[in-house]
Fold this protein.
Amino acid sequence: MKTTSKTEAKQLAKAYSHNKEYKDVALYIIYCNRTELYYVDTNSLIRLWEQLIGYYVNGVYTAEKSHS
């Protein structure tokens, strides 16, 4: 699932994380520098040009720590 804004991606991930189908499954929010889009996915594998923003599990958000 892809969105154009971080807020929209977080709302989408939160909504899906409350779904019975995704119970106890992490829904990752990933930003792609190339397309300038946010992706919501259950796969946390990211490429060099992508950045993990955070994830939802059962409606609880956890932000990715900055590596600076």
